[in-house]
Amino acid sequence: MTVTDPTEIDASPDSFRRMDESTAEQWAVIGERTRENQSRVADRILMLLESLASISDGFITDQLTHCLQTATMAERAGAEEEMVFGALCHDIGKAISVPNHGGISAEMIKPYVRDDVYHSIKNHQDFQGMHYYHHFGVPTDLRDQFKDEPWFDLCVEFTDDWDQQAFDPDYDTLPLEHFEPLIRKLTAAAKF
User: Considering the domain boundaries, does residue 149 fall inside one?
Assistant: First the structure.
């Protein structure tokens, strides 16, 4: 664990020690500093995506290549920018945990994407299960529980047309640098 030198902390000298004792002025400083440092979101997303290059877990491609391929396919199919961003980041949660990676990924991008993109990324695992859950004795129709959701068709397109097909080491995949401007654009300001 890294211990931060207290002199390096970017805080107001009169900042509070308890939230229930904070003032509007203190929160104004925090809000301004947060806005000033918003670019770190893109930097951290890029860092986490790059970390996926070391994870293959038995797949023929590493997880960064898989994410880049998924985003490349989405972009080439004419998907909207937020969906391309979602496709790029859909497995970013695997840098932390594979079993609940969809939920981790979705929560990370939630402030920057539409609700349908968020739900598609959050639930993509059970939609994709149609293609392989039978190998584990798990029902392949788990996506059916969401058939009345407004984001159902988008998630089907995402998982069936791009995500489950993006494991081809010979595919003409766009590099991470291609997507960096999109990452920076969409994460420049959070949607609250």
Answer: yes
Whole-prediction pTM: 0.89
Q: Which domain holds residue 155?
A: 39-186
Q: What is the pLDDT of residues 31-88, one digit of tens each?
A: 899 888 899 999 999 999 999 999 999 999 999 999 999 999 999 999 999 999 999 9
CATH number at residue 72: 1.10.3210.10
**Contacts for 107 with CB less than 8 Å, ≥ 6 apart:** 122
